[in-house]
Amino acid sequence: MFIGEYKHSIDEKGRLAIPIKFRADLSKGAVVTRGLDTSLFLFPKEEWDKLAAKLASLPLGQSNSRAFARLMLAGAMDVEVDKQGRVMLPEYLRVYAGLQKSVIIAGLYTRLELWDETSWNAYKSKMEEDAESVAEQLGELGV
């Protein structure tokens, strides 16, 4: 289970240190892919396999299904946590998410999200302002 918010830096080779408490969950393999809201998603391999199977089963006749599957599946890359607890983030994914130096690693239960610090702070501020209306909408869904 991933929870919490952590700030780390990407080194000059594109490697990002993963918080120690998350490394064991990623030790059997991990997948990084394009996320939503200009973030990257980092999944443990077993969680990725569940999501990938669902994406692969989406109806091919629906353009939104094809587009979302392409976004997630074609952008995915297997990564490993090295002995220093780092993962290598491919350049095309760093560019997609606008990751420069300072990265926020946000734990979201089954996945980690990787955000450029400035983008994360802007997103978080907006969501904090809208928290009550979001909570009301989620309440209507039984959350």
What does this structure look like?
The chain is an alpha+beta fold. The protein has one domain: Chemotaxis protein chec, CATH 3.40.1550.20. Helix content is 43%, strand content 29%. It contains six helices and eight strands. It has helices spanning 20-26, 45-56, 63-74, 91-97, 117-129, 131-140; strands at 2-9, 15-17, 30-34, 40-44, 77-79, 86-88, 102-109, 111-116. The strands form two sheets. It has a six-stranded antiparallel β-sheet with strand order 1-7-8-4-3-5. Strand 7 and strand 8 form a beta hairpin. The mean pLDDT is 94.
Break the fold down into its secondary structure elements and pairings.
Blueprint: E1 2-9, E2 15-17, H1 20-26, E3 30-34, E4 40-44, H2 45-56, H3 63-74, E5 77-79, E6 86-88, H4 91-97, E7 102-109, E8 111-116, H5 117-129, H6 131-140
Antiparallel strand pairs: 1-7, 2-6, 3-4, 3-5, 4-8, 7-8
What are the key terms here?
Chemotaxis protein chec; alpha+beta; 6 helices; six-stranded antiparallel beta sheet; 143 residues
